[in-house]
Amino acid sequence: MTYTRKTVAQDVKLAGLGLHSGVPVEVTIRPGSEGIAFRLGATRWQAIPENVSDTTRCTRLGDISTIEHLMSAFCGLEVTDAEVELSAAELPALDGSSTPYSQALMAAGFETRGQAEIGQPFSRVFLQDLPVKIAISKGEGQWRYEFRLDDHFPGEQDYDCPDVVASYATQIAPARTFALAEEVPAVLQAGLAKGLDIEKALIIGMEGYKNEPRFPDEPARHKLLDLMGDLYLAGVPARLLNVVAERSGHRTNVEAARMLHEAVTHVT
Fold first, then answer.
1. Percent share of the chain, pLDDT over 70
2. Between vectors from CA 260 to CA 254 and to CA 263, what angle results, nearest 5°?
3. Has 250 been annotated as catalytic?
């Protein structure tokens, strides 16, 4: 399986408040040629599953928290090489989705870095940690997320995307992070989500949404967004995979990425 390596054509700069910490942070995405990596000061972490240090409410790479929304934009836009420099230890919340990242990347433009090949074929990667299931196979970019909230609105909600790359910018990237209304006080009391407000997150009540959704199935789309970001730690382009996931979170997403990473070899 051969694919084109791609990086940004020029520096991309964004700024905001850390999603959970609320700390001001500046992010600079620079052209790269050695995969995707994140840098804080003099320390650099390659974006691979082995460097994930925590998956509690976000994906943390080394000392840098909440990488999943930017990694998702890289995945959906097929950016394979980039150097991400931060002034603080958490990516900004921005609008709670991946759209600001994807729009900034597209505005900067892209350059190719030659061809790469996945040298070791794999038939299927399957993670089951009931009730979580993640199935990954060679494919054509068909991704599906099955979102479930038992005894709570919206109950069962599925998002099926036949071409995840073609649909990413308009159908997946805009989906915001979400929270259950009854959990919001505890989240705030724990000192989390300081970079979010009512416009940057979808709030789900027992009987319906508490604010206006961008899509009727926005939670399922956002879970797919997160899944794409976490699985991209394996370095396999989304268009080369078919993926189905149910009830997964960052911990199981990253474990599936580790399994996928071990199942293939990359030849450049």
1. 98
2. 150
3. yes
